[in-house]
Amino acid sequence: MIKMLKKMNVPNRLTMLRIALVPIFIVLMVLVELNVWDYMKYVALGIFVIAALTDMFDGIISRKKGIVTNFGKIMDPLADKLLVASGLIMLAGIGTLPAWIVAIIIGRDFFASSLRMFGSDNGVAIAAVKSGKIKTIFQMVGIAFAIIDTNPFGEFILKGTNMGLFELTINVFMTVSISFALLATVWSLFDYIVKFGKHIDVEK
Length: 204
Prior knowledge:
By secondary structure, the chain is an all-alpha fold. It folds into two domains: 1-94; 95-204. The protein has eight helices and no strands. It has helices at residues 2-7, 10-33, 40-65, 70-93, 99-121, 130-148, 155-159, 165-199. It is globular, with a radius of gyration of 18 Å. The mean pLDDT is 86.
């Protein structure tokens, strides 16, 4: 493993770091659920933010230096999906996010990945759509707010002024971010289906 990492460029090392942080994040979220320590959620948030930032920086470095590898094409989106899916599932488990939202977002990723794999098998590369990146940004922002939120999705609609200013603000930002992530998820799936229909012959 160490030899493999030494051979990698910086963007791919950041991708591997993101993948390595996922199980650490999951363990921390389990501790949050068990209420081991009141401030454990902030530790989990810190790990999640660091992992999310590796996604931003590996993209910046790749574009600036023109670094594109087959490993990166596969592992970078996989790392994003692992991080986002683990966050969504853990938050659904503790009741912060509705399971149906998590199911739609993760289901979209499985479906889009299947379309891209089918296209690759047929010699056609279905490029990532811009709406997919927008979706990921909203997901990560929403998950970050949800980690420290003490109220479930949309709770501010029911409680309103009965909530403190901090918890109200966090719940509003979390709910809005996840809502936009859900809309971008549907939008990006439609983009993939349109691209798939234009370039792939399913009769072959």
